[in-house]
Amino acid sequence: MTFRSKAFEIAQGRVAPVLTPPTERVADLYGSNTFSDDVMKTLLSAEAYTKISNAIRSGSTIDREVADEVSAAMKSWAISKGATHYTHWFQPLTGTTAEKHDSFFDLTIDGKAVEKFKGSALVQQEPDASSFPSGGLRATFEARGYTGWDPSSPAFLMDNGAGGKTLCIPSVFISYTGEALDYKAPLLRSLVMLDKAATGVCQFFNRDVDKVTPTLGIEQEYFLVDKALYYARPDLLMAGRTVFGHSPARGQQLDDHYFGSISPRVNAFMVDFEFEALKLGIPVRTRHNEVAPGQFECAPTFEEVNLAIDHNALLMDLMQKVGDKHNFQVLFHEKPFAGINGSGKHNNWSLSTDTGINLLAPTSKPKENLRFLTFLMNVVKAVHDHADLLRASISSAGNEHRLGANEAPPSIVSVFLGKDLTNMLEELVNKGEITLEKGENFYYKLGITRIPNLQRDNTDRNRTSPFCFTGNKFEYRAVGSSQNSASPMIVLNTIVANQLMEFKKEMDERLAAGEEKKVATVEILKRYFTESKNILFEGNGYSDEWIEMAKSRGLSNIRETYDALYAYTTDKTINAFEKMGVLTSRELHARYEIELENYVKKLQIESRVIGDLALNHIVSTVVKYQFKLAQTARSLTDLEMLEEAAPIKEIIKDISSHIVVIKRLVHEMTEGRKTANNIEDLFERAKYYGSEVKRFFDEIRYHVDKLELLIDDEDWPLAKYREMLFLE
Q1: What is the pTM of this model?
Q2: Which end of the chain is more exposed for a tag (fewer CB within 10 A), N or C?
Q3: What Gene3D superfamilies does the record tag this protein with (predicted)?
């Protein structure tokens, strides 16, 4: 029995574990492992609680005395729930989360054991920063970096899986000289500026608005494979995706997996991680099968952007840990399997006021609709003016495999508003009038009396649009499933804040000149629509016609990651980010270098995996099988069964032809990699990897996948697609 067949036997023998659901109601379970507002209200003095609440709402400074009281309460609460350690939990530019655990246990000067956690340890820690990517912001020997407590994101308890828990404190991560080395610090800055800009514009319509909060709902797609089969695929283990694998006879053609019945084993995993997520205050509400076999999705309730991103990063880590318990490997790579859908992380973004208004929700009241149109068109204008930057924010080696195929949006950034909204904006430009009916005024007449009328939204969804309006929010569909959503949200928040400030500036000038407010608003919006309408597209983003149309409209079609990332370094980007105080020129260039270097390393790893698998697994196995065929053909020939021997000889020749090409291509790819590694300029090295090394990937794959069809199933060394994708 081969290693692969043994792995498949193990995988097929798995059964769904018996789960004991918590005795608490879900509502009581929710947030039980978080240092929530209710916990703070119980454990803190009224004065300390008020100061913390003000800091969370308005960003006011927390003094050291309050920090000492909070740390004492946190320690008491965490230890009572079984915690033994604490850590500043942060999100460096590796794309994952990071933590360094310190014990509450300490010794006094006279050797007595105590449990200690001071306010200074809560507010600031000093992890070694030398091995985290900095993009040139500091030298390797400059190891000092600081993490700082973010009180707006609740601390939580993470179960270590070995009987202990760790108190995790969401934190920013900065260099010794103060530059941001993480995603959270610039995200928080962008949220402050967007609040300021959006509140300023809201004042034109409603002076009761004092705060605007961006909200986010992140739909997370992922694949599940059995752990045994995962370890039978070195490419999945090393590169996160299958570099080889012939498509099975049945893939996703029937679309029968989509929203289908969830298998007991997968459902047990989902239920388990959802309960754990709810304990951590992650409001996971939706679960379902996705289109591709083996693919699934979960989604939470909308939250404030910073919290939503923290929760998504935590959820991904949690899913992997729970997956281990169920003998599953969770795959977050954007394209782990060729020929079927990849995975995205759809970011549903909107703006809400402290008066309870969704600024991106249309109504039937003219005054409120003018406000809605104002925010809608400012977002469209921001995306139009910074489309290349938005494209850069979702660029990666993994997403490069996904974009433009199997329901993933194309690399051309466009905005879908829907026919009704687009027509309304055309009327605004042509007539200066607005006609809009709310979605609830439209009903489908089904002709079935037992079924009530179904409500129709005022816009449909376009599955091929990277940035689409879906009734009361924008959905950025192009974000990759493995990404930290902070990257595109930092960009979106910043460019919208910048645009809203430009709008307010012009409005103030017009009003100061005596122009009537409504007239001034409409005139500005008319101009914005005229300047931005080239980015609006209602049709099929996969069509060749759209590629030509987009080109004629002057829209970019940036297919390669190394080209897309350049947008981080343009004067337009730097001016916008520095004006908003979100990222400096140095920090932007650092992120550009980090992403380029990450792209190079990912392709370098994939190239090495391809070479190793092709020569040391595939060719070596195939040669042995070919020898058995040759012996069979020789025996038939000796028996003068020439006609029977002929097809076997043809198979031997086919195998040989593929082996020859594979060995040649692997050699050429390896030489190309050596050349690339000797290129000093980082952009040129990335370009060489992306154009000259990567081009061998699909060529080698073609010949390996052909061999998979020729070699006896029992002899093939790698777990096959049909085995990995169709497990119950």
Answers
A1: 0.93
A2: N
A3: 1.20.120.1560, Glutamine synthetase/guanido kinase, catalytic domain
